[in-house]
Specification:
about 500 residues, alpha/beta, ABC transporter transmembrane region fold, Rossmann fold, 2 domains, six-stranded mixed beta sheet, four-stranded antiparallel beta sheet, binds adenosine-5'-diphosphate, binds magnesium ion
């Protein structure tokens, strides 16, 4: 069951949208996948068994005690409601505190994940001490909440122990008086005292079981919380697969903000990219170029307006068919821990080795891959750390070649390459662009001058658009940017 739940949770996480991951830390989700489900399986492993075994013992002991002396048994039973009340009262508190405790361990996980992923930056800035300090703050918070849980757990167990000893004492007193009155024999009293343990033990055990139950249930709550979060972006009920596309993309009065209460990133943006053409976006960083690309793949949905491919709103297509028609080369390349070959194969899962090599050749990556000791079977390390940024970017380009999709998005695709490699990859990208609708985002204006249309974005939206020569003859902003010899970012302050 634990395994099934873990896999179900993981597969649910696969479909949660970008916006969910914008606001939820990975460490927290990790502890749900591991720790919470472990607690839960402890509960349903031992729980039912314990409840049955101790329940039977309690009933059996009651029958035996009743047959020895009904009056003494009745006296003992007066304690039972008190014991139950103690258990219920304490278990509510434990549940609350253990939820807090779980929150704290998740924060520890989040922090560890965050700092260790950025360990290179930490060491480069000699920030180990600060890292340890902020980590120990979280770790100490966890320690104190854990202490609270342990303390809280002692109340029911010690309370019930105390009550069970009181039961013993009551029996001794009442039994002694009964013997004096001649209504009970000494042998019966001794037998009675021996059997009392069978009655009190299940109740004491109840306290321990309560703790287990509360911890398990708190984990189950968190599990349900994630499972019941619907993916924000899903196929509409009547979604159709996107097939035989020509690749015309248009934005109609699109307004978009990432999260409510945040300012709009795009406001009333409209443009049209005819099928097979190349459109370049340029503008200062943070203006929303990457956001436009994310919207085309429907990773986020605009609050207002429509995005159309071949004249239909993209939300009318199934997500998988839409995304399979778009290949993107992004500025932040992510490689998975595995071989180079596996990483390129992401573009087409059933690709043969020959196809992978062909794609790598086109992306100008074959040369460096062949030089590695294990060639295409070389391990790239976690997040591709064993390759240079430029090499990673070429692997991403190889993925795009392999995917062979009709819409191509190049988001600062060559920004990490040196001049020579960029020139070589540029040829590859020219080849990749033919007969595809292409969106290029670049700062270096030399990279985009061949585009059919160049759109200059500013805070107010589209400032200028047209081909390179049209924009130059207009002698506007683009012309000014183009003529400035140092293409530094300051030029964008004009916008
Ligand atoms: N996941 C996100 N959540 C919230 N805001 C974001 C997110 N990604 C980008 N932004 C904001 O949206 C704006 C546009 O970002 P982006 O599209 O990446 O800019 P560009 O690619 O033009 O440099 C920026 O101001 C940035 O702060
Ligand atoms: Mg960007």
């Amino acid at each position: 069951m634990e395994n099934d739940m873990r896999q179900e949770l993981f597969s649910h996480m696969q479909n949660l949208s970008f916006s969910y991951y914008d606001t939820h830390q990975i460490g927290r989700l990790m502890s749900s996948l591991t720790h919470d489900l472990l607690n839960l399986s402890e509960l349903y492993h031992h729980g039912p068994e314990d409840y049955i075994v101790y329940g039977l013992r309690f009933i059996g002991a009651s029958i035996i005690l009743f047959s020895i002396n009904p009056f003494l048994t009745f006296l003992l039973y007066l304690y039972v409601p008190v014991m139950l009340a103690v258990t219920i009262f304490c278990s509510r508190r434990i549940r609350r505190i253990s939820a807090q405790n779980q929150q704290n361990i998740s924060t520890v996980n989040d922090q560890a994940e965050d700092i260790l992923s950025g360990i290179r930056t930490v060491q480069a800035y000699c920030a180990q001490k600060q890292a340890c300090k902020s980590f120990s703050a979280q770790a100490n918070a966890f320690l104190s909440s854990r202490k609270k849980v342990y303390l809280e757990e002692t109340y029911p167990s010690q309370g019930l122990l105390f009550l069970s000893r009181l039961m013993f004492l009551t029996t001794l007193l009442a039994g002694g008086i009964s013997i004096l009155h001649g209504t009970l024999s000494l042998a019966d009293l001794l037998a009675f005292l021996l059997y009392i343990n069978y009655l009190t033990e299940p109740i004491e055990k109840l306290a321990w079981m309560t703790t287990q139950l509360q911890e398990g249930l708190a984990g189950f709550d968190r599990f349900m919380n994630i499972i019941e979060t619907p993916p924000q972006i899903v196929d509409l009920p009547d979604a159709i697969p996107l097939e035989n596309i020509s690749g015309e993309i248009s934005f109609e009065h699109v307004s978009f903000r990432y999260h409510a209460q945040e300012p709009e990133v795009l406001h009333d943006l409209s443009f049209r990219i005819p099928a097979g053409q190349t459109v370049a976006f340029t503008g200062p960083s943070g203006i929303g170029k990457t956001t436009i690309c994310a919207l085309i793949s429907r990773f986020y949905e605009p609050q207002k307006g429509h995005i159309l491919i071949d004249g239909n709103d993209i939300s009318q297509y199934t997500l998988s068919s839409l995304r399979s028609h778009i290949a993107s080369v992004r500025q932040d390349v992510y490689l998975f821990n595995g071989t180079i070959s596996d990483n390129i194969r992401l573009g087409k899962p059933n690709a043969s080795e020959a196809e992978i090599i062909a794609a790598a050749k086109k992306a100008n990556a074959h040369h460096f891959i062949a030089k590695l000791p294990n060639g295409y079977q070389s391990q790239v390390g976690p997040k591709g750390i064993r390759l240079s940024v430029g090499q990673r970017q070429r692997i991403e380009i190889a993925r795009a070649f392999l995917k062979n999709a009709p819409i191509l998005i190049l988001d600062e695709a060559t920004s990490a390459l040196d001049y020579q490699s960029e020139k070589e990859v540029q040829h590859a990208l020219e080849a990749l662009r033919t007969n595809r609708t292409t969106i290029i985002i670049a700062h270096r204006l030399s990279t985009i001058r061949h585009a059919d249309c160049i759109i200059v974005l500013g805070k107010q939206g589209i400032l200028e658009q047209g081909s390179h020569s049209e924009l130059l003859s207009k002698n506007g902003l683009y012309a000014q940017l183009y003529k400035t010899p140092t293409e530094n970012c300051d030029t964008y302050s004009l916008i």
